[in-house]
């Protein structure tokens, strides 16, 4: 049976580790330092998307690595 694949996170293990390292380093920043921090949210938007991608899988295989669809 054809099913729409689950999307895989775009964060790599290296990216996750770097974010965690930064968070631990900044954990004890004084409030005055945080007042000077500006967070930016960069997002990618698709005007036209292709929703016709599908995979064939058996029940219980939803999270098998071969059943993911990569956006990259």
UniProtKB/TrEMBL annotation:
Stored InterPro entries: RNaseH_sf
Source organism per UniProt: Caerostris darwini
A GO MF term: nucleic acid binding
Name of the molecule in the record: Transposase
């Amino acid at each position: 049976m054809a099913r729409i694949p689950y999307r895989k996170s775009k964060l790599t293990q290296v990216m996750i580790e770097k974010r965690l390292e930064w968070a631990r380093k900044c954990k004890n920043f004084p409030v005055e330092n945080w007042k000077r921090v500006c967070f930016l949210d960069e997002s990618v938007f698709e005007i036209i998307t292709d929703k016709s991608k599908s995979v064939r899988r058996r029940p219980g295989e939803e999270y098998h690595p071969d059943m993911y669809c990569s956006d990259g």
